[in-house]
Structures are given as C-alpha cells and as structure tokens.
Amino acid sequence: MSVGFRAVQWNRDKLIYDGILLVAIAIYTSVFAAISWQLFPPKNIPDAIDIGIQTSGTCAFLMISIILSIGPLSRLNRRFLPLLYNRRHFGVLAFTVAALHVGFLLSWYIVQGNLPNLAVELTTWKDYAKFIGFPFKVFGIAAFLIFFVMAATSHDFWLMFLTPRAWKAIHMAIYVAYGLVVMHVALGSMQDKAQSPFVPLLLVGGFGSVVVLHLMAGWREWGVDKGIAVNSEGWIVVGVPDSIPDKGARIVVAPGGERIAVFRDGNQIGALTNLCAHQQGPLGEGRIIDGCVTCPWHGYQYRLSDGCAPAPFTEKLTTYRIRLSHGLVEVDPRPLAPGTPAAITYP
Amino acid sequence: MTVFYAFAIYLAIGLVSAIAFVAVGAQQVTHSSLTMGARIVLLPAATLLWPYVLGRWLKSRSIP
Description:
The complex is a heterodimer.
Chain A: E1 4-5, H1 12-39, H2 45-76, H3 81-85, H4 87-111, H5 116-123, H6 137-152, H7 156-162, H8 164-171, H9 174-190, H10 198-226, E2 229-230, E3 236-239, E4 248-253, E5 259-265, E6 268-273, E7 287-289, E8 292-294, E9 301-303, E10 319-325, E11 328-335, E12 344-345
Antiparallel strand pairs in A: 2-3, 3-11, 4-5, 5-6, 6-10, 6-12, 7-8, 8-9, 10-11
Chain B: H1 2-29, E1 33-34, H2 36-48, H3 50-62
Helix pairs in contact in B: 1-2, 1-3
C-alpha cells in the first residue's frame, strides 16, 4: 500500500478538500444554531445545550448522507469523482461531529445532575415495546459505536493489517449505521416537543436522496451486466477491440459475479480484477495514465501487462486470459494467480 | 452495570496490549516504516480489536 505510514497522508489536494469541509461545517453549524436560537430562545443552560445537540446531530446526519451519496453519484457522473478521492477524511470528520453530538448529550444530563437517568432511560425495558416513547438514543449509541470502529480503522495500516477484503467488510457496516441513524433521527424527531419541521424534512431529503441515487446506480449497472454474452467455451465476449475506449476499460461480469475490467492501451489489451488492492475501488472506471491502470478513487497504479504495481510498491492484482477470436475480444473468466502476465497485443 | 464493567475491563486490557503493539508489534507485522504520529493514530483501533491484533502479532512472531 505504502512505503511508509504517517499519521495522516496529507497532500495539497487533501488539504484543500479538508479546508472546504471545515468551512462548510462551520457555516452550517453557525447558521443552524443562530436560527434555532432566534426561533426557540433558550430559557436555561439545558435549553442552550439542546440547540448544540440538534445542530451537531443534524450536521452529522447530513454529512453521512452526503458521504453515502458520493459513491453512486460518481458512478452516474464522473465529474463527482473528485469528491470520492478524500471520502475517508470526510468520514472521520463526520465521526468527529457525531462525537460532538454525544458530548452535548452527556453535558445536557450532567448540568442537570441526572446522568444516571440516561442509564435508566436505556434500561427501562417496557419502553422498548412502545413506538412513541421508544428509547431512540439506543439506535444512536449503536450507530456511534460502528462509526467509532470505522474511524479507528480508517488508517491505511489497518487496511494492510486486516486485509482489504475484511477492511471493506467492516466499512460496509456504514449502511447498518446509517439505518440506525435514520431510526434514531425519525423517532427523536417524533418525540421532540418543539416539533420543528426542519429535522423531518432533512431526514426525508437525506435518506430519500441516498436511496434514489443507489437505485439509479444499481439500475445502470444491472443494464450493463444484462448485455454480456458467454460463448460455448465459457469465454466472455467483450466485442471488437475498438468497443473498448483507448486508455479506458469495459467492465464485464463473470458467471460467479466477479467483475473484470478489460483495458485497452493502444493495441494492447489486458484484463484485471475490477477491485483495486487498496480500498477495493472500481478499477474499470479508471484510466491508463503513464502506461499504468490508475484507480479512480486514490490513484493507485498497476501495470496492464501483469497487474503488478510499479516499484517500489508490491501489490499484485488477479489477471485474466484474453484472446482475439474472429475479430472479437474474449476473456476467460477463470482467474489467474495475481501478477500473472496475460495481456495481448493485436496488429 | 455488569455489561459496563465488563466493557471497561475489556478496554483496559486492550489499552495495555495496544501500547505494546504500537510500540513493538506494529513494526514486526509490516515491512514499512511507521512514524510516531502513525503509531499514536493506531492506538484506538488496536485497543478495540486487541484479541485479533494480539493473535495476528503472535502468529507473525512464530513465522521465522
């Protein structure tokens, strides 16, 4: 993954990205808190803290909704790819805002001297049978624990140590956490005495956008997968060489569901797994830059000829046999050992 | 409260083993260099996942 591990792998682009995020968070929280203060002037310290709870909570929800929308947005339109590049920092910042939300909540109990009431709320088992009155904070706590594990393991060291497959599986838990957050916000909003219309609107807008974008991206991929033909020998027919964009790829699906990226670089054609060894990013949506297949997510590079990362990096990708038959490019869906040379050149 | 105390004990053991891991073990399981900042950043996850981390560390030591 890297020749050395630092605390944070910052570069100029990431610093700009993080700077924009911090400014956006500052603007959102200031505006939300100022409007809430005007509409519901606090009568005491707990009321003021309550504004902090709502401000940080809605900000975290909005951030997580945007993070989950970036993936499908990038699939639907490549112009959104730059947002994906530093999504990990976005996630850690969202966790930090969520931690602030938890901090405000705990201080709300502490200033009133009734922190034990939180434990009572969570362990009053008969309330779990109610709809209105359900201890909605339990959903928030569960989601926060998942976000904590994700933020704590977000460093590239853990990607290497846990293996990309396990790391990806852990980080896919964001969907479980998001579901818990949606239930937390929905029930919390229903139990809110102020009955502000903003939170329900934010919930419907955020959750609705995430669902619609995922369905649209899924529908598009399903349409592509449906058109793939397999010949009598079990090889996947990709099409004529020119149907593969130069310095780009076409993605085909093996019968087992594995996605294969078939790249063309001039008159050289090679097939690699569609999963980048870094964060399992969609390699086939990347380009060939400086003679190497380049992942669209974080720019990790591999040689088209054998799927190996150029020195000093050591990652190797699964490759696939490829041939030209009756003028058509065909791929053998049976994977070769990572790093096996398999690309061909055609006249 | 039992669950809370059990979790606190789990984290206390995790913190001790995490300090040992980031100080010594992390370098043994990777061929890459680790800065002091990186070691500090690794602490929370090493504390949370200490049974797995210790297992992997011990396994890597047993491989010559």
